[in-house]
């Protein structure tokens, strides 16, 4: 299963509630995931997202957080922005010279398939290097509306679009 390298692109900006955590070690990931689960279970978030979208957010968070701790190192920070149409996850570490590298032609039983999963569940993703830090990010949909910066124009009378 060949795949393009993880795209080098700046972290997008998204308006919304900002949540952030420090991840000192792998055992902290499950505590932060539980906190994130509680935040997205709040009625204001539940009413604007689907169960599958919230599960996807938690899964992508866990993948990116464990990758940052395993392959990045230093002070790992997690940032989640809850926007009206979805979420931005930004995991940063102190290894700006080590980009994320999706596994290629590896037996899934050996692990390392997390970035492929992130790519499948996200509407956009990438990484950028900043002084002293690497940011790996993903945009996730809320399951109800497309997560886009622009809007799709409505078809004019007489035009038909097929999906």
From TrEMBL:
Cross-referenced Gene3D superfamilies:
Histidine kinase-like ATPase, C-terminal domain
Keyword Nucleotidyltransferase on entry: no
The residues covered by the Histidine kinase/HSP90-like ATPase domain are 44-138
CDD domains per record: HATPase_RsbW-like
**What is one Pfam family matched by this protein?**
HATPase_c_2
* Entries under SUPFAM superfamilies matching the protein: ATPase domain of HSP90 chaperone/DNA topoisomerase II/histidine kinase
> What are the boundaries of the signal sequence?
none
Q: Which keywords describe this protein according to UniProt?
A: Kinase, Serine/threonine-protein kinase, Transferase
GO MF terms, alphabetically ordered: protein serine/threonine kinase activity
What is this protein's name? Histidine kinase/HSP90-like ATPase domain-containing protein
The organism encoding this protein is Geodermatophilus siccatus
In the record, what lineage is assigned to the organism producing the protein? Bacteria, Bacillati, Actinomycetota, Actinomycetes, Geodermatophilales
